[in-house]
Amino acid sequence: MATAAHDVTREEASSHPAPESIVVRFAGDSGDGMQLTGGQFTLSTALAGNDLATFPDFPAEIRAPQGTLFGVSAFQINFGSTAIETAGDQPDVLVAMNPAALKTNVEALRPGGLIIADEGEFGQRNLDKAKYDANPLDDGSLAKWQLIRLNISQLTLDAVKPFGLGNKEALRCKNMWTLGLALWMFDRDRQPLIDWLANKFAKNATLAEANIAALNAGHAYGETAELGGIAKQHALPAAPAEPGLYRTVTGAEAISLGLVAGSQLADLPMFFGGYPITPASAILHHLSRLKEFGVTTFQAEDEIAAIASAIGASYAGQLGVTSSSGPGIALKTEAIGLAIMTELPLVIVNSQRGGPSTGLPTKTEQSDLYQAVYGRNGDAPMPVIAARSAADCFEVAIEACRIATQYMTPVMLLTDGYIANAAEPWKVPDPDTLTPFPVAFMETVPEGGFEPYGRDARLARPWVKPGTPGLLHRIGGIEKKQGTGNIDYSPANHQEMTDTRKAKVDHIRVPDQQVAIGETSGTLVVVGWGSTFGPIHQAVRRARRKGLDVAHVHLRHIWPMPGNLAALLRGFRHILVPEMNTGQLKTVLRDQFLVDARPLNKVSGQPFRIAEIEAAIATFFDGVTGNEGGEVPADAAQLPTPQSGHDDGSLRPEAHSPQSV
Amino acid sequence: MNDMTPALAATKPKDWETDQEVRWCPGCGDYAILKAVQRTMPELGVRPENTVFVSGIGCSSRFPYYMETYGFHTIHGRAPAVATGVKLANPDLDVWIITGDGDALSIGGNHTMHLLRRNLDCQLLLFNNEIYGLTKGQYSPTSRVGTQSPSTPFGSVDRPANPCAFALGAGARFIARGIDVHKSLPTVLKAAHAHKGTSFVEIFQNCIVYNDDVFAPFTEKANATANQLWVEHGQPLRFDGGTKGIALDPSTLTLRVVAGDDPSVLVHDKTNRTIAHLLVEMPFGAFPMALGVIYDHPAPTFDAAVVTQNREASTGKTADLRRLLAKGQTWMVDKEPRVE
C-alpha cells in the first residue's frame, strides 16, 4: 500500500487526512533542521507501508532571525493506511521546538491533539520574540490539547556528550532526538535512518555517531517513559456534533470524572486504591487532585494492597475503587474473589494493554475479556462493562458505580490503552440529567432481626457501616451461611450460596441492546465491544453504502448481557465479531447463545483498520451486486472467512486464500 | 485507639464474646489470647460497635469470628491492606489486626512493612508459633534453622525472621512482646492500644499440635524466672529475680549480662530505638527473652496525615460537579446536527 513520498500542496494534503491517518507537524526554527526531520520521518513512514502525503512549509528567508515568528519552519506529514472520505488538515501531533513554532502552528492542531514542546527553548528571550506575555506551557492556555513538555535541548546535549561536540553542533542533533521520539510513537523502524545518517556523514564519523546517538536516545526516551497511546484512535469523524458545550477529554479523565459523578449520585465518599502501572496511572493522577469531592486516593505498596484497601474502605462505608492494567488485575484476582464472597461494592477499572505478562505496556489490546468474565478461582460471577471511547468512559464509570452499589458486588470496567490516552471532543454533560442512586445503609435492626447475608429483591445483602450499634457482624472470604453469615461448609449451603451469587449477577438489570447502525435483523451483524467501535462503525457504514445488508451492534454490558441480545443476534444469518484478541467475546457469545459467531482477530498492538473489517464483511456477500470493487482493496489472504473454519481467525500472513461460497 | 465518644457505657468481657463455637484445637494458645483480649477490651473504655478486627488467613485469623465487634476475615497476608482502607475510610474506628507468622511475615510481609512505615493508627497482634498450623505443620519464616516439618523432613536450612527486628527495621514506633498464657498480656495490650500509631505486638503462641513447647525454654514455669526479661520504662533491665541485669558494652556497642547490682545495668528507656534493636536481637540462651513494651515512641500517624491533607486540599473549594465537568478549555457548538 505504500506510495512513494511526494510533495503536495496544502489543498491536496487536506483532501486526504482521514480517521485512519495521523497528521504530524514538525515545527521549529529554520535552523532546527525541521525539513530534514520531516523528510526522514516521511521516508521511514513510507518504509512502514503507510500511504502518505506531505507538505513542507518553510520561510522564504534563507536565514530568518532565530526564534522569530516568521523564522518558523514546519513540515507536515499525513500518513495512514487508506484514504477516506473526511477532509481536514488538522494535525494530530505538533512538535514545537520553540515558542514561535508553537504560536504559529498550535491553532491548527485538532482539539485533543498532542503537543510535544521543547521546554528548554521556552525561556523569556524566546517567549518575547514569539510575543507571548506568559509561558503558554504553564498558563493553561493549551488545555484544549495534550501536552508533553520535555527539555529536548538538554536531553540531546546529554545524549551526544560522549562525542565531544561543541554546544552549537551538539544542539543541531535536536531534530534527530525528536525524530527518534516520533519514530517510537508511531512504531517506525530506525534502521533506514541510521543507514542514511551513516551515509550522509560518511566523511565525519563523529557527527554521524552523534546524530545516531541522539536518534536512539529520543527513541529510548519514548520507550522508557512509556509514552504510548498517541497513535490516533479510530474515532468517528468529528462532523455532526450536537449543539452544546464541548471540551476535550481523555478516557482516563472521563473515567475519573465518571467515578466522581457516580460516587456523588450514590451519595458516598470515594476511596481509590491504586498502584502505578501503564496505562492506568492517569486515573490515580486525576483523582488525587479532587479531594474536595470526598475522594481519598491511596497509592498502595502493590496491586494487591490497592484493591484490598479499597475493599476495606467499602466495608467501612465508602465507594471503594481500584484501577490497573492486565498484569495488575491478575494480582488483584484473589481479592476480587473476596469482594464477591463478602458481597461488597467495588469498582475495578482495567485499562487493557497487550499481554500476556508484561506484554506490550504501551500498546492496545482487548485480551482481558476472559480474565474479566471468567478469570477467578471458584464460581465467581462479576458484572463486566466496557467503554467504547474516551467520552463513553464517563457514562460507563457511572454505570459501574450504580451496579456496584445497588447489587453489592464488584464490577469490572474494561477500557484500553487507546481509550485511556486518546483525547476526543466531549459534550459536557449536565449533572441535572444524571439519575441519582443514593445508597441506603442499614442503620437499625429490621423487623424480623438483622441478617448480614439477608437479601433484598435484587438479592443484594444489606450494607452496614462499622460504627453502627446493634448491627455488629463479621464477614470474610470463607463460605457463609445464607442469612446469618456464619461460617458454614455444609453441602446444601454452598450449593445455595453459589446459586445465589450467580442469580444475583445474572439478574442485574441492564438496558436492552440497541443497534448502532442498521436494522434489527438481516444478513450480517458485526458485534463489537470496547475501542473497536470506530473502525467497525466506519466499515459497516461503508458496506451499507455499497448496499450490503449489515448492521453494527456494540456491547457495553459484557456480563450480564442485555436480555434482548440473544433474540437480536438470532435475527441475523451471520455474526462477525472483530476483536483485538484471539476471539474472546466470540467464545462468550457462542457459549451464551449457541450462535455461530465468527471471529475476526488482530493482536498486533495496533487498532483495526477500517479496510480490514470492511474486507471481512465483504466475504459474507461474495457475489452480491454492488460488492465488487469496493473503496478498499482487501488483501484477502490476510483475512479469515466464514468458511475457513479456524477458530481464532487471526490475521496470519501464511493463511491460505479463502474459499469462496 | 480513638478519641471519640467521651462518655461510654461500661462493658464486661462477656459483651465481647460472640455466640460462635470457638474452633481451635484443644489446648491451643489462641484460647488464652482470645480471653486476654476479651478481658482487656472493657478496660479500654471503647465500644464494640466502634471496634473492627481484621485478620488474614491462618489459625489466628479466625479470631474476629469470636469477637462481638465488627470483623473482617480477609485473605492470606492482606489484613494490613484491608485495615488501611477501613481506617482511612473511617478514622474514628478502632482497628485491630490479627495475624500470624506466616500471614504477616511471609505472604503478607510487604503489607506489614508498609503498614509500619506509614504508621497507621491500629494494633497489630502477631501470633507467633513458628509454624504453619492450618496447613498442617510446615515450617514458617520464624522457624529456627533445623526445624523438621512435612516440607523440611531433613530440617529447615534458612535463617528465621525476627518479627520485632523486622518491625523496627520497617520503622515501627511501638514494639512489644507477650506470651499467650502469661498474666501480663492484658497490660501489653493496653499499652498497645494507648499508643497512637501502629502498635506491633508479637505474642508467643504455643501450637500444641505441630510445634508444642517450642517456646518452653522461657515460657515453662521452671525456666521463666531465669529467662524472661520483662522490661519496664524507667526501671533497670534486671531478670532472674533481680540477680542479673543487662548492660551496654560501649566499646563494642553490644549488650552483655552483668550482675543485678552492677551499676552499669541499663535503665529501660522505651523511646530509645537503638537499645530496642539490641534488646529484640539478643540471642536467646546467652541472654534472656526481652518481653513487655520494648519500644514506644509515637510519631504522626498516616490516617491523621491523610485526613489533614484531604481537609487542607479541600479548603476553599466546593464539590461543584458542573464546574468540574466543564473544566479546561471549552467551546460551544450551536449548529443543528447534520442529518445523514
Describe the fold and architecture.
The complex is a heterodimer of chains A (661) and B (340). By secondary structure, chain A is of the alpha/beta class. In chain A, 33% of the residues lie in helices and 18% in strands. Chain A is built from 21 helices and 20 strands. In chain A, strands 9-8-10-11-13-12-18 form a seven-stranded mixed β-sheet, sandwiched between helices. The longest helix of chain A is centred in the first third of the chain and has 20 residues, at 205-224. Chain B is built from eleven helices and 14 strands. In chain B, strands 2-1-3-4-8-7-13-9 form an eight-stranded mixed β-sheet, sandwiched between helices. In chain B, α1 packs across α6 and α3 (101-107) packs across α4 (109-118). Chain B is globular. At the A-B interface, β7, α10, α12, α13 and β15 of A face β2, α2, α4, α10 and α11 of B.
Instruction: Round the mean pLDDT of chain A to the nearest integer and report it.
Output: 83
- What is the number of helical segments of chain A per DSSP (H or I, 4+ residues)? 21
Mean pLDDT of chain B: 95
- Taken from the alpha-carbon principal axes, the silhouette of chain B is globular
Distance from first to last alpha carbon of chain A: 27 Å
Radius of gyration of chain B: 24 Å
Task: Describe the main β-sheet of chain A briefly.
Answer: 7 strands, mixed
Number of strands of chain B: 14
How much of the sequence lies in strands of chain A comes to: 15-25%
Task: Outline the low-pLDDT stretches of chain A.
Answer: 1-19, 51-55, 59-63, 81-88, 229-240, 629-661
The stretches of 5 or more residues of chain B where confidence is low (pLDDT under 50) are none
Distance between the termini of chain B: 66 Å
Largest sheet, strands/sense/barrel of chain B: 8 strands, mixed
Determine the oligomeric state from the structure.
heterodimer
